[in-house]
């Protein structure tokens, strides 16, 4: 299944970005594995906890956790290589974002939840891994500041459930959502599209 | 039902304070909606996850999530107005604190949990929204430092379950808890009542 | 039961270290109780939420929560005493680490989970309390930097399930894991054993 292959590629790439963030904070190998795993499978974990969808993906399939830990540890050796090919990682990260969003939608649909919650599940799955990474490594949360990221996840979720609603076959829905979502994210990176920022300065605190 | 109306007022006001905190960190619209929602419904979410009380309130009633997101986005336009009327927000926040505490108690009572856990549920519901807001926006957690806040939630929880224990009718219990809790919180703000602070300096680290 | 007695000693000691961390941040009594409880029973709470193991330990047995709150408040009075005897706390913390790890394993085994997840449950139970403490008090997460800590929990988990797998009686397995894990942790402190650290500096951000 295409989605499974892309999912494994996605968690591997996300785990590597998590490991780099841990390296910038001079964490030890355990910290590297923790941040790598939180980045890669934290979004799905938060989604499942919010929806009460047990067992969690990595509890039922511990091999995913093994993949993210190994990818994290490999990054401690291959760090410079990862940075040199960082353009590939932008592409892999975009694939991961859309795959995670689609899987999030699917889980919520399977549970019979309302369309709003399906879209929320897409965004949580796509975005919370990076958010957890930035909270553990105490960085400014990237997903809340940089180019369209959560919004792409949001639109991918809406597209996915809308197409299913109009009885488009599931395979075609997945492929079209992947293609459109990926293109949108790459365009956002390329053209630096971003959401308006809310700057608020308190005159008197 | 009075409590439902006050609950909607409460989450709207809390969402707005969350949006202002996001604005101080120059977050984009997605960040504003995230922090607004975490502030308003994060306390109930943490409580339900701790108690295993599924589905979560906003998963069963997505309209609450829509309210907090809209309130957050409106704040990006009305920010200055919100600050000008900040005294109203202190009042709305106090109402929200007591309403959240009462609802937290009710959930735990419905699940047949022990009185201690009912009071804990009240405090978690009342306090964790603000705590999540301060953790995501990386501020000093207000609820752990400023005037009586968690303590008011604690006392409201104790009052609520004590009155029910002595067979006071539920409506009267709710109204009295609201009145006393609200007054206590306003008095704490007005007179700057606060819990003793534990200052600990390590001689040799 | 030995394990129960050691568990109560462990959460008391962990609660006290949490209270000291809260004191360094000048938190009020509520903050002290919150950080003390998160440190002492946060690891088990995160484990149970991840595994979907309800009700949580302290919800079913609120007396544990009372112990951690009282221990936290006592520390506000006895802070200097706690520091003077900090060597005892290193010993109690090591006992707590192994007891928490064993209990984490036992919970996962009871749920019929795979060996990998049993070891993960051990590490989460042993380590996440300290991680939560450091996140709430906004400190550099100690467990991701200092001498072998998570690794000791990891090895204790592997030893425990391996011995059970080879039909060693449960009591003996527990005692041997306690003795070896405790010795390993104390040796790590004494000889400053630590995991390799991953230092990654980004040439161009």
Automatic annotation (TrEMBL), chains A, B, C:
Keywords carried by this UniProt record: Cell membrane, Membrane, Transmembrane, Transmembrane helix
Transmembrane regions: 64-83, 90-109, 115-136, 148-166, 172-195
Statement: the UniProt record of this protein carries the keyword Hydrolase: no
Keyword Methyltransferase: no
Localization, UniProt: Cell membrane
Location (main, coarse): membrane
Membrane topology reported for the UniProt record: Multi-pass membrane protein
Any Gene Ontology CC annotation: plasma membrane
All copies of domain Glycine transporter, residue ranges: 5-78, 91-163
Family annotation (PANTHER family): INNER MEMBRANE PROTEIN, UPF0126 INNER MEMBRANE PROTEIN YADS-RELATED
UniProt name for this protein: Glycine transporter domain-containing protein
Lineage: Bacteria, Pseudomonadati, Pseudomonadota, Gammaproteobacteria, Vibrionales
């Amino acid at each position: 299944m295409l989605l499974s292959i892309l999912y494994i590629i996605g968690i591997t790439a996300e785990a590597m970005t998590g490991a780099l963030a841990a390296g910038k904070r001079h964490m030890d190998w355990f910290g590297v594995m923790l941040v790598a795993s939180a980045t890669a499978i934290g979004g799905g974990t938060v989604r499942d906890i919010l929806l009460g969808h047990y067992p969690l993906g990595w509890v039922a399939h511990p091999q995913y956790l093994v993949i993210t830990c190994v990818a994290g540890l490999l990054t401690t050796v291959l760090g410079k290589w990862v940075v040199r090919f960082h353009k590939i990682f932008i592409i892999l990260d975009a694939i991961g974002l859309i795959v995670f969003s689609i899987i999030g939608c699917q889980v919520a649909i399977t549970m019979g939840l309302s369309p709003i919650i399906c879209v929320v599940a897409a965004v949580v799955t796509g975005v919370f891994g990076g958010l957890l990474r930035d909270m553990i490594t105490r960085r400014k949360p990237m997903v809340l500041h940089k180019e369209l990221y959560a919004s792409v996840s949001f639109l991918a979720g809406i597209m996915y459930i809308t197409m299913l609603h109009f009885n488009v076959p599931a395979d075609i829905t997945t492929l079209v959502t992947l293609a459109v979502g990926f293109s949108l994210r790459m365009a956002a990176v390329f053209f630096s599209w971003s959401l308006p920022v809310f700057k608020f300065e308190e005159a008197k605190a």
